[in-house]
Amino acid sequence: xxxxxxxxxxxxxxxxxxxxxxxxxxxxxxxxxxxxxxxxxxxxxxxxxxxxxxxxxxxxxxxxxxxxxxxxxxxxxxxxxxxxxxxxxxxxxxxxxxxxxxxxxxxxxxxxxxxxxxxxxxxxxxxxxxxxxxxxxxxxxxxxxxxxxxxxxxxxxxxxxxxxxxxxxxxxxxxxxxxxxxxxxxxxxxxxxxxxxxxxxxxxxxxxxxxxxxxxxxxxxxxxxxxxxxxxxxxxxxxxxxxxxxxxxxxxxxxxxxxxxxxxxxxxxxxxxxxxxxxxxxxxxxxxxxxxxxxxxxxxxxxxxxxxxxxxxxxxxxxxxxxxxxxxxxxxxxxxxxxxxxxxxxxxxxxxxxxxxxxxxxxxxxxxxxxxxxxxxxxxxxxxxxxxxxxxxxxxxxxxxxxxxxxxxxxxxxxxxxxxxxxxxxxxxxxxxxxxxxxxxxxxxxxxx
Length: 449
Ligand SMILES: Cc1cc2nc3c(=O)[nH]c(=O)nc-3n(C[C@H](O)[C@H](O)[C@H](O)COP(=O)(O)OP(=O)(O)OC[C@H]3O[C@@H](n4cnc5c(N)ncnc54)[C@H](O)[C@@H]3O)c2cc1C
Hints:
The protein is α/β, with parallel strands linked by helices. The chain contains twelve helices and 21 strands. It folds into three domains: 4-142 and 298-362, FAD/NAD(P)-binding domain (3-Layer(bba) Sandwich), CATH 3.50.50; 153-296, FAD/NAD(P)-binding domain (3-Layer(bba) Sandwich); 375-443, no CATH class. A hairpin with a 4-residue loop joins β7 (122-125) and β8 (130-138). Mean pLDDT is 92; it is low at 1-36. The protein has helices at 24-33, 48-61, 80-85, 98-101, 152-155, 172-179, 199-214, 235-247, 300-303, 344-362, 410-428, 437-443, and strands at residues 38-44, 66-69, 74-76, 95-97, 106-109, 113-117, 122-125, 130-138, 143-144, 161-162, 183-189, 220-226, 251-253, 256-262, 267-272, 282-286, 289-291, 296-297, 329-331, 375-382, 385-391. The structure holds flavin-adenine dinucleotide. Flavin-adenine dinucleotide (FAD) binds at residues 15-17, 44-50, 69-72, 78-79, 81-82, 112-113, 139-141, 164-165, 195-196, 199, 299, 301, 333-335, 342-345, 347, 377-378. Residues 15-17, 44-50, 69-72, 78-79, 81-82, 112-113, 139-141, 164-165, 195-196, 199, 299, 301, 333-335, 342-345, 347, 377-378 line the site of flavin-adenine dinucleotide.
């Protein structure tokens, strides 16, 4: 049974890492390594973006000149959780010790940043350290706000309620599929920015595939309640996904935002965002299985800093990734206000731009790197089927392969299931993968953007 503390607000700032207190030994080790608290480069956050950038700059700047501040013991490859939730992979294989992914040339400050003083080039940590920098990369990700849905933390302790978005709730998804007898299978997408906006649908199509395989699909009413007004941001893939949902007999309700779960009655209540009444009209669905994609937001420590916009996101120039006010600060990944879909694929592409631009700033040169918004989402639509969406800031396709990726394909399924995990661990986190642009150029005989 899932402990209530796991999903309480106390830990809600932890988007993906191991829940638990950090051992005293760990701090004393850190303290002895931390005699030098002044660095040329400080990276805040050791997720996909932070590890990738430390790999790029750790050896370039030389030992002792780069530090990464990250409190968690384990680094997780979060896209794996879609496969874990689909019952196709084991959750244990989604994480590796943080120590093993931080480059040897980079000092790991195993601590949490609690405040930023960008006018003094200083950050303060929970453990009472003051760390100064010449340059800083902010890569703090976004957190899961399960507690913002009334009744949801309690509901996670009951059968049938699950979420692929957290380490602590993802294994409930295959269990909910197995336990399902008869009734509604409800899938949600919230009214905030989220990471991997395709994941709320991928879990639904894998559940559909499972139910067909075991012969209970006719016992289930599939309902997709999304706060968005479209199936997916990029129109080309939105049209295809609407067809996929229709073919599978899934009812799609736009502008439906989950606000409450009553786990005693097994009911989920949604506000209708299209309603012009105040308070908005609501609609309640009984559920047998409920997969929740929670609202998300940046960590509080970043939200209360002078580095963010009104919605709490790090304000960077969307093309250069440089902070709009502090030229020695850059951002990468989910915590930035860059208007593209938040994915590890976007981070790969951003990492090449950031590598060039940070190097140029350090050398006092103009910034050469320009990010075009490239992002990608492998939209699994069933066993052996996947649509690989790739697009830019204008939501226009920027596809790697020389065929129409808008159609379901077995090859793309294998790309997602078998190829992307080694790509992540071995190439991206070592700073060697900056997105598929070279392959795109080659496959399109140099004609692609
Ligand atoms: C279910 C699911 C499916 C996904 N599927 C895909 C997919 O198919 N393809 C894809 O490309 N992407 C996918 N993603 C998205 C992808 O995993 C994220 O976009 C990416 O990992 C974000 O990287 P990040 O570095 O911005 O943040 P994270 O990797 O979340 O890292 C942020 C880090 O910052 C640390 N941190 C937070 N606050 C502080 C602080 N105060 N001080 C110090 N450190 C702090 C955290 O501990 C964490 O380690 C998926 C995500 C999920 C959850």
